[in-house]
Structure formats: C-alpha cells, structure tokens
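User: I'm putting together a teaching handout on how sequence relates to shape, and I'd like one worked example. Could you take RagB/SusD family nutrient uptake outer membrane protein from Maribellus luteus, show the sequence you're using, and then write out its predicted structure as tokens right after it?

Assistant: Happy to. First the sequence, then the structure tokens directly below it.
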Amino acid sequence: MKNLRIFLTVIFALGLMLSACELNEDPKFLASDNLFTDEVGANTVLNGVYSSVASYNYYGSNFHHLTNMASGLYNTDRDASLIDIAGLNPPANLNFVTTVWSAVYESISRANNLIAGLAEVELNDAAEKGNILGQAYFIRSLGYFNLVRIYGKCPLITEPVTSENPYNGMSTPEKIYEQIIDDAEMAEQLLPEQGSEVAGRPAKYAANMLLAKVYMQLAGNQTAGSTDNWQRAYDEAIKVYGKYSLVSDFKNLWQETTSNNSKESIFEIQGNVENTLRLLQLWTASTAHSTTWGRFKSNLEVYDRHVSTYPNDPRLKLTFVTEYSNTAGAIQKTYPAFKGRNNKAKSYPYNYKYFMKDLNVANYNTDMNFVVFRYADLLLMLAEIENELHGPDNAYQYVNEVMARARVSGGETSDQPADWSGLTQDQFRTNIMFEYNFELLCEGHDFFNVRRRGYDYFKTNVIDVHNNHPMYDFSKSRDVMYPDNSRIIVMPIPEDELNANPNMSASDQNSGY
C-alpha cells in the first residue's frame, strides 16, 4: 500500500508540473486506456481526483487561507495579509487568489478525465462503475460551486483539455449553476445509499446536501414568495434528514481520536500524517508550537457576539482558545483577558477546533480529516429554509436538535443555548444566520454564509459591526478597518489567468478590481 502511495504521489506531482494556470493539462494524466480496464485501475484514477481535492492549494491549505481571511470574521498572524486579503482588499495577483483557482480546476480536470475515460469502457461491476462516476460528478459539482461562489464566474470546462482546446473563455454564472445542478443530480443517481459507501467517500445524500446549498445560494435574500429556490432547497435537504445523526458530544468532533468519519459526517476530506492536511498548522498559535503558523484567529466581534448571545454555552470553550501554553511553557492569555491592541500573540482569541490539542508533539502532522458537510449544518439549513417557506412554527424542531446537543457538550450541562420559541419570521431569519457562526465557525462555510444574502447583509452584519467595535484601535497595525466596497462579495479573477488566456481580457475582471 505504501509503495502504491509513493507511486501515486510521484505521478500526481508530475501532473501538477504539467498543469498551467490557463488550465492546459496533459490530457493523458492518469487517464491511459489501460487504467480503465478494471475497477482497480478506475479507482486509481479516482484516487488521483481526491488527491487534487486534498492538495495544499485546495482543501489542504490555501482554500482556507482564501476563504477565512476574506470572510471578514478573522484576523491573522500573517502580517502581509493584514493589508490585503484579511483587510478585505485582495489584489488580483494575490497568491491565494491564483492558487485556489488553479487547484480547483486541477480537481475538475481530473474529474473530466475520469468521466470521459469511463464513458469508453464497460467494467465487470456496473454498480462500482456508477459509484466511481458518481464521485467524479460530485467532485466536479462541488468544484464549480466553490469557484462560482468565490469568483462569481469562471470558464466552464466539462471535457478533457487537449492541445486542440487549451483555452476556454468565461461562462456566465447561470451556465455554471446549470452544470453544478446537472452534475449533482447525476451524482445523486449514481452514488450508493448511505451505509453502502466506502468510508470517507460520499453517499447519495452528500449530493442532496450539495444541491440544497446550491438552491439556498440561488435564493439569496429573496423571500419564498418571489422564488421557488427555497422550495427546491427544502426538497433536497429533507431527503438527508434522519439519514445521519448528531454525535452525542460536540467536543468529539474536534478530537483526533474521535473526529474522523463520525455518524454526523456527510462528506469529509481524508487526511493522514503522511499526506497531512495543514489544519493544525493553520489554526494553532505560532507562539504555541514551533512548526505552526497561527494564520487564523477570530475577530473580537465574532467572539463577543457568541458570548453575549449564549454566555453559558459549552461550545464557547470548544470554539475559542483564550488561554494556552506558549513555547516557553508560560500561560498565554488572549482577548478578552488581554485588552492591548498591537500584540500578535494576545490581541485576538484563537480557535479550538483545529488548535493543536497536544503541544508536546513534534510537528503539526495529523490524521485529522476536514469535514466539508456535517449533519448539524443540514439541521440549521432546514430550519432556515422552513422559516422562509412557512415561518418559524415547524422550523424550531430542526434548530432545537442542535441546541439540545450543545447544552450537554464538553463534559458540561448547561441551560444554554435554550430551545428556540416565540420568534417572528424576521427574528428567526436574523438569529439563524448567527447560529451558523456559533455552530460551524472555522469549518469552511463562513465566507459563503455571510455573503449569500447579498452585500447589504454583509455590510450590516460584518463590515459595520467590525468597524464600530469599541475595542479596536485602527491606528495599530493588528487592527484593520474594513472598506465599504461591494466588490468584496467575490474575489478578483486571477491576473495570471487573464494575461495568459487569449479567450479572456481585462473586461472579464470582476467589477472594482
């Protein structure tokens, strides 16, 4: 097995060298005809698809760099980022903007090769062929969903790239969403039932959850009376309801020994110490361990909102790190105990979920996976959708499942967060959007959830709340005032792509960049 892993690593590295930002990839990469003669070969190609999804520039690291620092909810120990992306002012030549674009297209290209290659053969196990194809369609759908939400638009490529078609022009968001939906619906048809999938790989309900998210994104800030996307979102989300369940203790989601492939997980990126995801390196304070970076820590308003809403919530200690042991062995206290505004190690609280639990280990390598979709998110989505369609009466049941689990987490029993009741539809709408932060902070959804209801929502609930926080001193280098500029709803199209692709021009750049 180890020899196979080494072989695949070499092949994957070669494939990356053959790739360019204009998506000109060697069409024979892991797609030779002999690899599609049996299920073993086809699964080898599928492993290559997943390898690209878990790569450093995608879910392994830079996807988190880009979406967390541009979310408006985090500060960073990376000084250079304070003046651009963490300050909501990303340039079109920013490394994270460029590498995430290329990495997502790498995964799409590999999925395209797999889909095209399997179309030419018949495998002995038809069900396994369908499962492999379903996973390829799912990964392609997720990739385009990430691209269109991050960049607003992108080229739509569904065939292997060859020397005859190395460049593609920009597609409209409408066309991209059509493809996302088509691919996810195909994945739903082909993926196995829940419980029949290989551990760590998606079952059909992962496709339903993806579709529910797509329709919620399309619904935006519209009411149910003006769009049927809320109903479509419900139709997909309700298929997942009851197929998974919450783990009994929220804390178990964030311990290396209990976190991977739990009964709450709907889809997660697999990691291991040999091909580690950089989760612990990114989230652990650089003053806590010699190999970590402390790239993300919560803004003061994010911490304060959770504390003011649920001061006795057991999840607080399982979401924020306000005290830790530094590399010298001394106790380091952050905000709120520390009030100073220009201290890298103490001015902002860190986050618990991917903070290194054992600071005595040699390095940041971890077996911990990254969960893309989990059941608690599905419950909050159903609550939001039901409220938009019919008001809060039937929506409480979903959010209160999450509340009940939160009250008995981390070895504590609390009266908070209490079950919801007695809210108007508008109050429920406001509260549920914050509940995503309280339950799902640091889990890759922040950038998208604060933007999907439009710029007015983002300005009111992110920019204005941040800029008006009384503790910040914007004359200090660590505190950054956010610009009031609607361009930040999407990232810029990478400058390298516009320069290298003859089918694109400066006019394809997003407005304001």
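A couple of points you could highlight for students: The beta strands are 74-75, 265-269, 297-298, 320-321, 323-325, 331-333, 350-351, 370-374. DSSP finds 18 helices and eight strands in the chain.
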